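Raw record, unedited: PadR family transcriptional regulator
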Amino acid sequence: MHNSFPAGGFMGNNFDGMWQAVEEFRSRFEKPSGTRAGRGELRSAVLALLAERPMHGYQIIREIEERSKGSWKPSAGSVYPTLQLLADEGLVSAEESNGRKIYSLTEAGRSDVASSETKAPWDSTSPASGGGFAALPKAGVELAQAAAQVGRTGSPEQVEEAVQVLKEARRRLYSILAQD
């Protein structure tokens, strides 16, 4: 690999701007802790966890974070109102133990979970669940890093070839959305 470009490489002093763009791209896909889940996901997650065993609120938060591989950590401000709503609906009950409320499913809650076709969000194959969706930003960032490397160290011909590859990739990605 040779660099026939002036000091600062092909991108000149604007190379930092490319890395800034890569970081901005990455940040658009990251789901910061405490962000809102899709409609019904927290409810499904809480019911799925309580179907396994009784838990207190912070155990529920930790389990969701662990099972979603860190991509989703609901806040206490969303978990506790959900637990209260489920209690109001008669699906969970709370029992005081060592100064903490331990939540468990009621008979109605167990029946609801058993009859529900809804999967726990971490078991779902939907894009928002983190399955395939988690791989997309990683692949995009890796692609941007490879493009930056070509821009930094490639010849003008290599850079032009990389531009054509990226344009084709963009067209192919949009064609995926156009499919039925």
